[in-house]
């Protein structure tokens, strides 16, 4: 039996192949209204906010490259992780972000920096002020799917280079907005560098060896936090590659594991990562059951995505500074560039 296993996180020890069984019944609210907030008082001075920060209080890596970066939105788990990774990389975190979520005092603390949170309705007015203070600004977007296109149109209107890590929205319109505005951007639904490299390898294999796995049976299990109700976009991309390789498989056959107890007992997800993980297992079996291939990538936490996003921002900054003719990029472009941390 041949076995190929790909692991992304050391916390996920190798475990026996999971049998694919019908996913447990799972129900959760489809939509929850997000509380909105309006800040009282005059708009905070960006210059004063920056001046009040203590640079010495921040522990950062040696600064081989630095530039201002604004993370929208720092109130979300992914946005906060990116902001922390940016500071660790030595980038200048702009102390402003946008969110409709209610936060105590209208600000959050990230790496000993106070990030002032403003309602999205104020974003254009405040961003106009920020652009004047930070001419080399790169914006990173981790908001919500419904805000993707409106946010991108605003960044394009203001000529702001941006990294779109938020999934969803109208992706065709998103790309068109960037193209029409001639603005620099990195757009990718998957920011994990190693996962992107794995996907790229799968796509190359599917292109070079179509039908190589004809007749093989495919079993897919993917486990994510309970709040994720749909099939992972990464899983869909990998399955698409297997289909090109000759495997017959229906997306409805994917075993979606969302029950925490099953994730602990069967999948092997560490308890501390039940609220944020991505475990994928793809098992191929030959028609006569004498050969098996297993592909597995397990991610605990959000650091892999945060680090990849910061690399994408650094990549984009270099392209802007060099005046590159190409403006729209994805994570494959970032990987091809090399020299990542």
Automatic annotation (TrEMBL):
Tell me if Oxidoreductase is a UniProt keyword of this record.
yes
Any one GO biological process: lysine biosynthetic process via diaminopimelate
Signal peptide region: none
Q: Looking at the UniProt record for this protein, which Gene Ontology cellular component terms does it annotate, in alphabetical order? A: chloroplast stroma
Q: Where in the cell is it found?
A: Plastid, Chloroplast
EC number of this enzyme: 1.17.1.8
Q: Write down the Pfam families for this protein, in alphabetical order.
A: DapB_C, DapB_N
Query: Which domain of life does the UniProt lineage start with?
Result: Eukaryota
* Pathway(s) annotated for this protein in UniProt: Amino-acid biosynthesis; L-lysine biosynthesis via DAP pathway; (S)-tetrahydrodipicolinate from L-aspartate: step 4/4
Instruction: Please give the function described in this protein's UniProt entry.
Output: Catalyzes the conversion of 4-hydroxy-tetrahydrodipicolinate (HTPA) to tetrahydrodipicolinate.
Q: Matching PANTHER family, A to Z?
A: 4-HYDROXY-TETRAHYDRODIPICOLINATE REDUCTASE 1, CHLOROPLASTIC-RELATED (PTHR20836:SF0), DIHYDRODIPICOLINATE REDUCTASE (PTHR20836)
Q: What is this protein called?
A: 4-hydroxy-tetrahydrodipicolinate reductase
**Organism, scientific name:** Brachypodium distachyon (Purple false brome)
